[in-house]
Amino acid sequence: MQRSRIIKVKDKTFAVSISERTLKGQIKRIAEQINRDYEGKKPVFLAVLNGSFIFAADLLREIDLPCEISFVKLASYQGTSSTGTIREVIGLGIDITNRPVIILEDIVDTGLTMAHMIDTLKKQNPASIDICTLLLKPSKLQVKLDVRYCCKQIPDDFVVGYGLDYDGFGRNTKDIYTII
Ligand code: XMP
Ligand code: MG
């Protein structure tokens, strides 16, 4: 069945901007890098809920290292603009002491969420922490952040789909859509 190029999520309209095919290709490319860079190691992936659940599921199936995954929550966002308010990391049910950690995030916008999360995780003395994000809005970055793995850089426009939401809706599409 042909998929819609235009979708409506609540009161807003979005047009397809990154296809499922592109996403899959980019995720494969990043997974190959991680497989190479982490050879001989047993990383812990920390997927940031809710937005990264589909990305994490697709990426993890391309990883051929012995690894664990845990899902954490940390929200700083409401509606279509970053509020800058940050909540605690919850749900880290795994000991990351001396372990290499790879954070899986759906999108890095101002970078404040990731900067805060790294500060919090460092207190538990992991061996290393890398950021792996599906999307990055480079023009919005407000903090110095080393994003080691990024599937795709995008302009500063609000996106939904493939796990990303607008007010909780719009996560359940195979492609990514940009607000119009
Ligand atoms: P910061 O600004 O801390 O924000 O890097 C990261 C979080 O903001 C959310 N975010 C978005 N969510 N479409 C979304 O669905 C977007 O275009 C978007 N931009 C930022 C997201 O939850 C991310 O974790
Ligand atoms: Mg998020």
Say how many strands there are.
Answer: 11
Task: Give the DSSP E fraction (strand runs of 2 or more residues).
Answer: 25-35%
Helix and strand string, N-terminal first? EEHEHEEEEHEEEE
Task: Provide the CATH top-level class.
Answer: Alpha Beta
Overall mean pLDDT: 93
Helix content: 10-25%
Distance between the termini: 24 Å
Low-confidence stretches: none
Per DSSP, the total helix count is: 3
CATH architecture name:
3-Layer(aba) Sandwich
Bound molecules: xanthosine-5'-monophosphate, magnesium ion
Shape: globular
Spatial strand order of the main sheet: 4-3-7-8-9
Q: Output the structural class.
A: alpha/beta
How many distinct domains?
A: 1
Under CATH, the topology can be stated as Rossmann fold
Could you describe the largest sheet, including whether it forms a barrel?
5 strands, parallel
Radius of gyration: 16 Å
Describe this structure in words.
With 180 residues, the protein is of the alpha/beta class. The protein has a single domain, classed as Rossmann fold (3-Layer(aba) Sandwich). It has three helices and eleven strands; from the N terminus they run ββαβαββββαββββ. The chain has a five-stranded parallel β-sheet, sandwiched between helices. A four-stranded antiparallel β-sheet has the order 1-2-11-10. The protein has a two-stranded antiparallel sheet with strand order 5-6. A hairpin with a 2-residue loop joins strand 1 (6-9) and strand 2 (12-18). Helix 1 packs across helix 2 (53-60). The mean pLDDT is 93. Bound molecules: xanthosine-5'-monophosphate (XMP) and magnesium ion. The site of magnesium ion has 3 residues, from loops.
